[in-house]
Amino acid sequence: MYLTNTETIPGKNIVVCYGLVSGNTVRAKHIGRDIAASFKNLVGGELKGYTELLSESRQEAVDRMTAEAEFMGANGIVNVRFATSSVAQGAAELFAYGTAVRVE
């Protein structure tokens, strides 16, 4: 599966456009990560627990978007974008979307 945030895939021709595909996940913060983050806020530095949480969330959203595109018969997704939103206290949604295409 080709994934790109551009309108085309270099060296490939889009022969079919299937339309919008998306994937999302909603994740809640973990109390252990919150405690570690509180200490890190005192001294500064990367909040590795949250970095891992966001990385896992992005991958889950992309996997779901890719599965939807494969179900349609696509072998690529162009114009891939990400969005986030807060859905509840301590929980956020990560949303991935793009246009499913068949390329040759």
Describe what you observe in this structure.
With 104 residues, the chain is an alpha+beta fold. It is 37% helix and 41% strand. It contains two helices and four strands; from the N terminus they run E-E-H-H-E-E. Strands 1-3-4-2 form a four-stranded mixed sheet. The longest helix has 25 residues, at 48-72.
Give a summary of the structure in a few sentences:
It is built from two helices and four strands; from the N terminus they run ββααββ. With 104 residues, the chain is α+β, with helices and mostly antiparallel strands.
Number of strands: 4
Largest sheet: 4 strands, mixed
- What is the CATH third-level topology name? Translation Initiation Factor IF3
Give the number of domains. Answer: 1
CATH top level assignment: Alpha Beta
Strand order of the largest sheet: 1-3-4-2
Q: What Rg, in angstroms, do the CA atoms define?
A: 17 Å
> What is the percentage of strand-forming residues?
35-45%
**How does the helix and strand content classify structurally?**
alpha+beta
Shape: elongated
How many helices does DSSP assign?
Answer: 2
Q: H/E element string?
A: EEHHEE
Low-confidence regions: none
> Any idea what the CATH superfamily is called?
Hypothetical protein apc22750. Chain B
